[in-house]
Amino acid sequence: MTAITRRILLGSALALGLAGTAAAQFPERQITLVVPFAAGGSTDVVGRIVAERMSQELGQQIVVQNVGGAGGSLGAQQVAQADADGYTILMATVATHALNPLILTQKPYDPVADFAPISLLVLVPNVLAVNPELPVNTVQELIDLAKEQPLAYASSGNGTPLHLSGELFKSMAGVEIDHIPYKGSGPALTDVLGNQVPIIFDNLPSASGHISSGKLRALGVTTAERAPSFPDIPTIAETLPGYETYTWNALFAPAGTPPEAIEALAVAARTAMADPAVAERMAEFSATIVASGPEELAAHVQAEMAKWEPVVRDANVTMD
Amino acid sequence: MELLSNLALGFGVASSLTNLGFCLIGVLLGTLIGVLPGIGATATIAMLLPITFQLEPVSSLIMLAGIYYGAQYGGSTTAILINMPGESSSAVTAIDGYQMARQGRAGTALATAALGSFFAGSVATFLVALFAPPLTAVALKFGAAEYFSLMVMGLVMSVALAHGSVLKALAMVVLGLLLGMVGTDVYTGAPRFTMGITQFADGLNFVAVAVGVFGIAEILRNLENEHDRQVMTKNISRLFPNRDEFRQMVAPILRGTGIGSVLGILPGGGAILASFASYTVEKKLSKHPEEFGKGALAGVAGPESANNAGAQTSFIPLLTLGIPANPVMALMIGAMIIQGIVPGPNVVSEQPELFWGIIASMWIGNLMLVVLNLPLIGLWVKLLTVPYYVLFPIIMAMCSIGVYSVNSNTYDLFAVAGFGLLGYVLSKLRCEPAPLLLGFVLGPLLEENLRRAMILSRGDPTTFVTRPISATLLVLSLAILVLVFLPQIRKRRDEVFTESDA
């Protein structure tokens, strides 16, 4: 071993040691995790499971605060404006950090400049499903039917990831299907179960109970790979190559948060997600664990914004 | 007998010491938060959700359910005592309940509400046990067109809520409809009447509007007159209803239970209509409709039963389909998911002890509530003897905490202040707040379903009359409209005849 490598090793050990002490100091009091949606939704559930395990890791309580409203923008805005000390963090989603910034004409925050990425936690597949009375069994049959007769699909609301998954599907398949927005997934599911609307784009976790019971027929998942929880459901990409959408959950702190705090939170998040108990909960929930580092999350946000920008533009979705 | 064995299983689960304990904690908490003005079941369940992490799934859902129907129970207490409804259902109770309290009959009103709720809760629980799956099938027949027609019927009935001028009641309904427009348009995403404030993007908060126009306005009105400052007259004769009053409340309770049970099943906002519908029916059937709005016992008994029956039957779509009927049910779904239970039609067959345990606990919980509440009536009534300079600031503080806790949104507090002033002005103009609230609640549902039905029918308005359920509801609305206006028309014609005779 040469002197130089030894010095580098020593230096990095020192740096690690320093980071270690700083990290040990970081959470001196309780941390607030802002979930920008109402309690009980999928983001809230992921947030609470992760927060509970991270609290054990950090030795300080992480309190979940639900700040719902404006499709997640209110909660995200609150964290963007919070003190950059690592004690206020955000449970972000594809809505707060890719779609809303593209859709909103008045931008309440900048998803890149106003935030310090911590960790991309999970990817959650969406699913294209139909009422069993609709005479289609595959994505291709649905596309063929849509070319013959007018159809409509339900989504959890205008400008939501599910709406845009539907719009991306329409543009790639070259079909026209009417969009019926609802106030959330629950009422949208109700109308598809009652066959008031034949088709739905939904989160896989929220639709999974109805798919297993046969009340809904799943045609395809929106991820590039089949979902481990439902290996029998093909992907939409098997029919429309290149089709890929999913909902994701990630942790962000306000921009300017000290790197030691970010590091401590990222390490805690990674440890929490590696816990078999947490992994089991996430699997029940059909969520795929990523548990990335800050850099990967930053790159992910850029990639998502680049992917959705043309979809949002083509679908002509805007909000003031 | 499958039902009996299922019920036996349910009672076996629900009557374990632990589950009885959590049921008691639930109804106790529910009653307490229901009694505190402005804090509703939604906020409390949201706050307690993390605690349920550590509990068994059955225990946690039993407790959360207890909070929900306990709060329905407790909510009527503030509506009756201080004219401060925390939820749309108790807004109706406030109309006659508060008048009864002002006449020194607060005890009677509270006892009526408690007994009516208990009866309705027990019957509705039985209905849930017996008919949950077939009733769900009926609920799924309701699409956008049906909900639109149902909301039309609700609006027509709202006119009957007024005990003064019909014109003013209509004006209040329209004002309520307009206030309900505030927020993001569901179909285009355009913000409407938000004045550029992102915090109003999801519309005005119901609790803020209700607390403002009812409660704060009442406080302002009381403060303006030096001599009339006590909230209530002090001659409270007796706490419990007498034999005659018992006889008066039986029929309204029965009818209220029926109406509430039916409407509670509809997940798209049917339960909201239950208490309003019951009030309308009672007023129409009453031999003394002029008493309504001035302290009619039936005006408390009917709506309170309807509201509690609806609260129980709204569990049907949740338990059989995994579909939330209201924000509280959405939270319950969250609680199930946190526990690793996938909500959906399989819960009944895969988790029978959960399904039947919750149903059995609802009956036990209702019994606990009536046992808890009857002795407390004396205590609540005593609260009214607290001097106004102590009571009013406490009410204001509790309201503010309650409203803020729902969304952690400071703009909701501005809304309370604004609507308090509006409510005061309206009371000076002798306009009543109840029709306004109904318009506010129904407006968004009416619009959403109208537009959804029109998109689904591809612009063909005949969809409302060609679908049988929708057509029936519209015919019923027309009939109610005729019933409401007929007495006035007849009166006017009589006047014309008397004049010509003379």
What does the secondary structure layout of this molecule look like, with pairings?
The complex is a heterodimer of chains A (320) and B (502).
Chain A: H1 3-25, E1 31-35, H2 42-58, E2 62-66, H3 73-80, E3 88-93, H4 94-103, E4 115-130, H5 139-148, E5 152-155, H6 161-173, E6 178-181, H7 185-193, E7 199-203, H8 204-212, E8 217-221, E9 246-254, H9 259-274, H10 276-284, E10 288-289, H11 294-315
Parallel strand pairs in A: 1-2, 1-3, 5-6, 5-7
Antiparallel strand pairs in A: 3-9, 4-7, 4-8, 4-9, 4-10
Helix pairs in contact in A: 1-9, 2-9, 4-11, 6-11
Chain B: H1 2-14, H2 17-35, H3 41-48, H4 57-82, H5 88-102, H6 106-140, H7 144-158, H8 166-180, E1 183-184, E2 191-192, H9 206-224, H10 243-264, H11 270-285, H12 298-313, H13 315-321, H14 327-338, H15 347-350, H16 352-383, H17 388-407, H18 410-428, H19 433-456, H20 463-466, H21 468-501
Number of helices of chain A: 11
Stretches of chain A where pLDDT is under 50 for at least 5 consecutive residues are 6-23
| Major β-sheet strand ordering of chain B | 1-2
Q: Ends of chain A: how far apart? A: 62 Å
Order of helices and strands of chain A: HEHEHEHEHEHEHEHEEHHEH
Based on secondary structure, the structural category of chain A is alpha/beta
- Please give the radius of gyration of chain B in angstroms: 22 Å
Quick one: how many beta strands of chain B? 2
Relative strand content of chain A: 15-25%
Q: What is the residue-averaged pLDDT of chain A?
A: 87
Organism (chain A): Paracoccus subflavus
Family (chain A): Belongs to the UPF0065 (bug) family.
Protein name (chain A): Tripartite tricarboxylate transporter substrate binding protein
InterPro entries (chain A): BUG, Bug_dom1
